[in-house]
Amino acid sequence: MKNFNRQLAQVFKWLLLLPAFIPLLYVDGMLYPYLSPKTFLFRALGILAVAVFVYLTVSGYPLYFKRLKNRLNWLPAGLLVVAYATSLTGVGFYHSFWSTFDRGDGLLTLSVIVVFFYLILLYAGKDFLQKFLKITALVGSLVAVHAFLQWVEIVSGLHFPGIALPSGRLGGTLGNAAFLASYLGMTAFVTLAVAREYKDRIIWKRAAYFSAILQFLIIFLTATRGSIISLIVLGTIALIYLSWKGTGRSRIVARSGITVLIVLSIIFATFRTQLSQSSFEPVRRIASISLADETVSSRLFLWKHLGSAIREKPLTGFGAEQIDTVFDREYDPSAILEQWFDRSHNAFIDYFLQYGVIGGLLYISILISGIIFARRLYKKGDIRGISIGAVVLIYTFQNIFVFDTAVTLWLLFVLIALTSATLDDSAAISMQTSPAKKWTAGVFALLIASLIIPVSIEPLRANLLLAEGYLYHVADVARANDAMKKGLALNTYADLEYGYQAYSNYTDRQVQMLEGNERVQGYEYTRDLLEKNFGKYTYDARTATYFAHVLELVPPGTAIDEALLYIAIDRAILLSPHRIQPWYLWANIFLRKGDVSKNLAEKKTWYLQGIEVLEQYAKQEPHLSEPRYILANLYLSINDRVSAGKWAGEGLALYKKNEDTARRAMKYYLGVEDWANMARFMEDVISMRPDDYDTTYDLAKASFLAGNKARALELVEHLKRVKPGLVETDPAFMEAIKK
């Protein structure tokens, strides 16, 4: 039995270490292949670790229980208690517990992270910290190598087996540039700590330093401004400290570094305008930082409004994973680009908003405890304390600009636990045991291990079935619907995500690509699923908006359930009053009746009712251009050119570059034959959609009619090169432009 316990202890040790390898995991054939499999495996490892811990504890395996006397080690448990308490009184506990299907944060994942903190704190011996640092450095290095190969694919057009091209900026195995940069920002300093340990192994030492440099390089290549600025700030603080407190060579190097930073700052400030036009994205994004930058203004909007919402519930918060309910209420289309947000892009605001002031202060206290432990480790003569302190600081600085992920939060908590454990000199303690206790513990451990089924295995199956539904939603609607029904029958927390995906399937593709019975099948399944979620998630503006939109997009020959449509629109507007889509759907109820009216007077009456709705919205949103161009087009359709011109004039004065608004403006200026303004908005569209060759050809015609023949010829020649045969489809125009 003792031999079994020793073997089980080895299994337990690797269960504690295996999450360090999770950043390498991504699985094709799933939705969210970079995030979901990580979450499923992480939760499974946590459950298995708890099961083994229970058996080992009752079996008398020695553990360091005296470490719990340190009150700084109580902080993670305090945060977890507050998180559950605020979520129980929050918007919706079910969603708070399970979170979304893509990232899978929320109370469950936070619970697993806190459990790992205490399992490692109670188990880790003196050598565990170094083993963990080496594994983390290795994984960080491999993640950086993968990301570098991905970058080579981007710039060269080559393709390496197993290395997928990113859909946006460089995301590596984490699938998101900000997630990748945040993770490597931490592992790079861990790698530096490992490098210092290879005193007599020069090759390994150089390899570790090279890997750390590569990780810093990848952070720069991700063009994640928050992480880059955080590294600059941390580096500047270190240089200032060394130039003041350092001695000998370190002081000289630090002062030289400060000089270089000052010179680079002057060069950057001098040539910032030119750098902001650079084709190299990291340089361009850094140089383009300003209050006028759309991304920056969006973040400032989020911080201002979500930060202000903290005062509404300073003690109870809104609960885990309920940030989107506040965002939907505060959303303003004239101030922010993104339609849907469930994070503020500032981890501190996120914690205060979700868990109240107490939860936010506990989160900050945990960060402070990490600095305290790292400083104590350094004071004891362990130089690893510097690197661990740097990890906590870079995590803190980065989280001012990004939101937390399970990967980085787990890494932070484990490093704090291991540093605390390394500082502790208490002896391990064994519990009194007996055969009966061991059998009871074994049964209890098996019951705990069985939780893997609902927590990880069933959600994994639901993900695979949702992916199948996505793959076949056009090619075989019946198969897609059947797969999604099977996935929902597993009764996981995926139902909200299933509704979002079904809506996207139907509105983005099935409406345009399907006819007859297949279109009806797609509609009925999407409608029924969203109606169920509409009844379950009464606080979710996204579900209400999607449900209303689907109710309107009925297949030909199917009657609209107008009463239910009104209910959905009312809730969507109640939950997100500034969002433009529900107001459009409301106006469309009247406009659709006007379209089928045979009497012109009746048609005008219905149109005026729809116009009244949109005018109400336009007055509510005095800084938004798009509804004004819609009103201009509607007034033009009932031959009220004076009112149309008034609204178009307001729209033109408020216009900010936006594709949807530009296309609506194009329609209006085509109707009034204002070719110069039409060409102006077409220029914006093709700058955002350079592969939209039909609009490019229309721009050539509008430019010609506006008297700009040179631009028309330039566009025609461009189309001859990139889209042969298109310009020849209008011989009359080609003949006119030649003359």
> What is the domain total for the residues?
2
Total number of β-strand segments? 0
Coarse shape: globular
Rounded to the nearest angstrom, the distance between the terminal CA atoms is 97 Å
SS-derived structural category = mainly alpha
Write the layout of secondary structure elements.
Elements (H helix, E strand, L loop, with lengths): L1 H16 L18 H23 L16 H14 L4 H6 L8 H17 L4 H29 L20 H21 L4 H20 L3 H21 L2 H23 L1 H4 L5 H7 L6 H16 L13 H8 L16 H33 L4 H15 L7 H18 L11 H15 L2 H21 L4 H12 L6 H19 L2 H21 L4 H12 L9 H14 L4 H17 L3 H21 L5 H12 L3 H14 L4 H13 L3 H14 L4 H13 L3 H14 L8 H8 L1
Helix pairs in contact: 1-2, 2-5, 2-18, 2-19, 3-5, 3-15, 5-17, 6-7, 6-8, 7-8, 7-9, 7-16, 9-10, 9-16, 13-14, 13-15, 15-16, 15-17, 16-17, 19-20, 21-22, 21-23, 22-23, 23-24, 23-25, 24-25, 25-26, 26-27, 27-28, 27-29, 29-30, 30-31, 31-32
Give an overview of the whole structure.
This protein is an all-alpha fold and 739 residues long. The protein folds into two domains: 2-423, no CATH class; 452-578. Helix content is 72%, strand content 0%. It is built from 33 helices and no strands. Helix 15 runs parallel beside helix 17 (406-423) and helix 27 (626-637) packs antiparallel against helix 28. It starts with a helix and ends with a helix. The mean pLDDT is 90.
